[in-house]
């Protein structure tokens, strides 16, 4: 797919007419990765990414001038959002716009996914809960452990901590799946139906911090984190979102939040071992399917 800069093309996606623009615009300058390739990434991965987005209010991180340019988070669906895209109106406590509610988009299908990719929404973020058919929030259905290494610690140390968390979850009969953040960290997801996931995750984080104080920290204080892995249990808050599986990240290369096997986690020796670009992930999915199937709450 290509076009001259500024030119619009109309394409049929899943029965919807979409006007795509600036397809040859380079959004990742270091490697020449274009908007057309961003759209291609999300289009080809739709079968594995949509189950993890469906029913979840969307927050996007848009980079209209590429990863080296200005960006902004967008929770409220843009004014020009087509009426065929599902939106839900939800409370917005603490909204920077001063609004009491926001109209969130819900990514239900391929045309919606392509629509946001065309807006240079490189990163897709969703909460650990869904809405029902009428748009009412449901209880959290997923628990997440977001592992953030404090330099000089890296994702290698995150893998060691991930194995500790896995052991704790196994003892509670909970099966976790790992994925990269697409940046420097690692995340563990598991289906959840047991009350407050934030309190549970906090308990695990505090327990491991007590047992392994030299390598684990459970508080957000920056000065406590150098050389340790921060287990961010607060990502389970209903007000927070986490980058979705298979989302691109705004890094110099088009890296992806990539589902992993536990063997890959246990074998990790260098940070680069767990860096995957769009091309890598497309090949992985073709070979292995969705390694994150079952990692999040039951599909609606």
TrEMBL record:
<dbReference type="InterPro" id="IPR014145">
    <property type="entry name" value="LigD_pol_dom"/>
</dbReference>
<dbReference type="InterPro" id="IPR033649">
    <property type="entry name" value="MtLigD_Pol-like"/>
</dbReference>
<dbReference type="Pfam" id="PF21686">
    <property type="entry name" value="LigD_Prim-Pol"/>
</dbReference>
<dbReference type="InterPro" id="IPR052171">
    <property type="entry name" value="NHEJ_LigD"/>
</dbReference>
<feature type="domain" description="DNA ligase D polymerase">
    <location>
        <begin position="34"/>
        <end position="292"/>
    </location>
</feature>
<protein>
    <submittedName>
        <fullName>Bifunctional non-homologous end joining protein LigD</fullName>
    </submittedName>
</protein>
